[in-house]
Specification:
The complex is a heterotrimer of chains A (254), B (124) and C (365).
Chain A: H1 14-77, H2 82-88, E1 94-103, E2 106-115, H3 131-232, H4 243-252
Helix pairs in contact in A: 1-3, 3-4
Chain B: E1 13-18, H1 20-28, E2 44-46, H2 53-66, E3 70-76, H3 77-82, H4 84-89, E4 96-100, H5 113-121
Parallel strand pairs in B: 1-2, 1-3, 3-4
Chain C: H1 6-9, H2 11-22, H3 27-34, H4 39-55, H5 63-84, H6 87-113, H7 119-122, H8 134-137, H9 143-150, H10 157-160, H11 166-171, H12 174-195, H13 203-227, H14 234-239, H15 250-257, H16 261-268, H17 272-280, H18 304-319, H19 327-351
The chains are: A mainly alpha (254), B alpha/beta (124), C mainly alpha (365).
């Protein structure tokens, strides 16, 4: 057997057998629970990966529309506004906050976008011409960024879940392939040791019983002989030395 | 369990590494933030053909590692391509690194580091 | 009588401009352009008109480099014209350049305000707005210096005088500076074409008055509409309206009081053209006013901006029906600018695969 040597270092006693049995039971319960957790997480994980796939594709489209609205701005303003925008950026209007979602005991952060009121860095951009396009472009991009934030949540969830599932699966596998077999081995070992002891005990008892019977038989015969000897003046008394009988007597003392 | 709240509760901003058009658009959406002087750090980097790869890597490290107030880093896919090894080896949850398409480089799911991981997981 | 001596100084230039005008893309050309599948095809289609200028572009160039090259051609032709112009004609062309100078100066002021290295800004400046002292602007490290020693030397100095002091430069939003300058510039240009002895009571002053009045009105309307929801106060807004134009004075007064799109519609209702624009762009109803602006691809009709461009092109086209005038130069520049915008737009649509709106260009020939 492969795990023959792999067992826990315990004395093969009944008490440790009880302990091991409890441990095995615990491990099996834990295994099934973890397995279920891992399945729940994996389900979630698959859902998230599917949504990531979708969201990434959606992002491709959304960003394209957004880029196009920027092209509209370029058309309407009739020039490059990039530098001006970069220079006038001061404080973020569009920010994210993070909240948590609990999936089978795993906290998944979720980004949530919000806009801070009252700072408007580019309010006057395109005042002379193209202002409406700039405005529209801002809205389009704001929507695009929302999609991006959504995607970022999914992706973070993906990374974290990936990690967690790995850990859980590692545990499941450890329980399934190491702890349970080892405990079982230990139980088997203890059982076999105990059986061995049982058998020895049984054999010994049997031996004792045999000897006792023989002793008894010998004693009876002696008794009988004595009675006859006293009748025949101890004729064959010296002819049969009772060597066996003496040794037997020694053995009986245990 | 994987991430203590302290890892992300201060993260409010988005950061961008992108070409001029992408950055302009995202700034228009209002994500631009410049920290108060004297250090005046921007949360965006405009990359053009002349920008050196080292600069991009530096910015990537700064946004992913040094700054603790960034929740999401957006990076143009074609720029991510230039520092692909960095992006691929980056596996932390915070900040989330998101590859976005640019005007001239439409989105290619094959190159995305996260999507590639998805594919690998499903054994495709 | 007015045309009797025009050709002595201006005939050659006018002839050249008319020649240039004929090389403008026609509806047929645009039709071909919209059928293109790649930027390379566009390049090929543009070859007859732009030939040499596009030759140095790499295969499948970006739309912005395409726009740059087409602008280069305009600049080259403009410079050639300017080199030929004499007397009041040269002065007229100087005026044409001031508009671009304002943009450049605004750009440089932005750079200086943020203490950037302004040298790298020079290449972003519009080449038509280039003036000799512009590189000097980069020497200035702070706004006060910029104002006292540099801006004073530029051709734009008169526009700064009286309306902006150096304190304004750091406090005011750069857009307000730009628009104040532009307002002063328009007024000055208007005065110039109407009062200069070479131009007053000539076709030039007639056409230019129409164009500039339209430009003034357009700016007034745009500024009003774009200032809704921003911190620009009504008084500040009123200061940005040019003091001439078909809306002036009643219309602009009403514009300055307008609170929403409907108010703007009401203010411009005195001028039939603008009223038509408003009605057909759906802005006049007010109901769809805000909704019209939402959505990147949602607007099915033409926006107000588009109609203004359309109108500008009509005016510019009509300018060519007159003779003995410098106004054709202005008209030609505007037409070429629109053409560059059209090309950029079409190229953008093709590059981004958004063919459904490719027809949004404005073609008048």
């Amino acid at each position: 057997m492969s795990g023959a040597g792999d067992r826990e270092a315990v004395f093969p006693t009944r008490q440790s057998l009880g302990l091991m049995k409890n441990k095995l039971k615990g491990a099996e319960t834990g295994h099934s629970l973890l397995k279920r957790k891992s399945e729940a997480l994996t389900k979630r994980f698959r859902e998230i990966t599917r949504r990531i796939d979708e969201a990434k594709r959606k992002m491709g489209r959304v960003m394209q529309i957004a880029a196009f609205s920027l092209a509209e701005v370029t058309y309407a303003v009739g020039g490059d506004i990039g530098y001006q925008i970069q220079e006038s950026a001061k404080a973020a209007r569009f920010r994210v906050r993070t909240k948590q979602e609990n999936v089978s005991g795993v906290f998944l952060p979720q980004f949530e976008s919000y806009t801070t009121e009252g700072n408007n860095d580019f309010g006057l951009t395109g005042l002379g011409k193209g202002g409406q396009q700039v405005q529209r472009c801002r809205e389009t991009y704001a929507r695009a960024v929302e999609t991006l934030v959504e995607l970022a949540s999914l992706q973070t969830a993906f990374v974290i879940l990936d990690e967690v599932i790995k850990v859980v699966n590692r545990r499941v596998n450890a329980i399934e392939h190491v702890i349970i077999p080892r405990t079982e081995n230990t139980i088997k070992y203890i059982n076999s040791e105990l059986d061995e002891l049982d058998r020895e005990e049984f054999y010994r008892l049997k031996k004792v019983k045999n000897n006792k019977q023989r002793d008894n038989a010998a004693a009876e015969q002696e008794e009988l002989g004595k009675r006859r000897g006293s009748d025949k003046e101890n004729e064959d008394d010296t002819g049969t030395p009772d060597v066996l009988g003496e040794r037997e007597d020694n053995d009986v003392i245990f | 369990m994987a991430a203590p709240p302290a890892a992300y509760k201060d993260r409010h901003f988005l950061a961008v590494i992108g070409d001029e058009d992408s950055v302009t658009g995202l700034l228009l959406a209002g994500i631009g933030h410049v920290t108060p002087p004297p250090d005046a750090q921007k949360n965006f980097l405009v990359v053009d053909a002349k920008t050196e790869t080292a600069t991009i890597e530096q910015a990537f490290d700064r946004y992913t590692h040094d700054r603790k107030d960034i929740a999401i880093l957006l990076i143009n896919q074609h720029i991510a391509e230039r520092i692909r090894h960095r992006v691929d080896t980056y596996t932390d949850a915070f900040p989330a690194v998101l590859e976005i398409p640019s005007k001239e480089h439409p989105y290619d799911p094959e190159k995305d580091s996260v999507l590639r991981r998805v594919r690998r997981l499903f054994g495709e | 009588m007015e045309g009797l001596f025009f050709n002595v100084n201006g005939g050659f230039i006018e002839g050249i401009v008319r020649g240039y005008r004929n090389s403008l893309l026609t509806g047929q050309n645009y039709g071909n352009l919209t059928q293109c599948e790649t930027i390379d095809d566009v390049k090929l289609q543009l070859a007859p008109a732009y030939g040499d200028f596009l030759a140095s572009l790499p295969p499948n160039p970006s739309t912005s480099s395409l726009a740059n090259k087409t602008t280069d051609k305009l600049v080259a032709e403009f410079r050639y014209l300017q080199a030929q112009a004499t007397g009041s004609g040269a002065k007229f062309m100087e005026y044409l350049k001031y508009g671009y100078m304002i943009d450049n100066v605004a750009l440089l002021i932005t750079g200086t305000l943020h203490e950037r290295d302004t040298r790298e800004l020079l290449e972003r400046c519009h080449p038509l707005g280039w003036f000799e002292t512009m590189p000097v602007l980069c020497v200035a490290t702070n706004i006060e210096e910029l104002y006292n020693s540099v801006l004073i030397e530029t051709p734009l100095a008169p526009y700064f005088k009286g309306s902006l002091s150096h304190q304004d430069l750091d406090e005011l939003n750069i857009e307000i500076i730009r628009n104040t300058l532009y307002k002063n510039y328009l007024e000055d240009f208007y005065r110039f074409v109407n009062e200069h002895p070479d131009f007053s009571n000539t076709p030039t002053s007639e056409i230019m008055s129409e164009v500039l009045e339209f430009e003034a009105d357009r700016r007034a309307i745009n500024i009003t509409m774009n200032s809704f929801g921003t911190e620009l106060s009504k008084e500040d807004r009123q200061k940005l309206y040019p003091s001439f134009g078909r809306l002036y004075p009643e219309g602009t007064l009403m514009l300055s009081r307008a609170e929403d799109i409907e108010g703007v519609g009401l203010a411009v209702s005195g001028v039939n053209d603008y009223k038509t624009f408003f009605d057909s762009s759906g802005m006049g109803q007010g109901v769809s006013g805000a909704g019209n602006m939402s959505g990147g691809s949602g607007s099915d009709g033409k926006s107000l901006e588009d109609m203004f461009y359309q109108k500008e092109m009509e005016i510019s086209k009509n300018a060519f029906t007159r003779q003995f005038t410098h106004a054709v130069i202005y008209a030609w520049v505007k037409l070429r600018e629109q053409e560059i915008r059209n090309i950029t737009w079409i190229a953008e649509c093709i590059a981004q695969n958004q063919k459904e709106r490719i027809g949004n260009y404005i073609s008048v020939f």
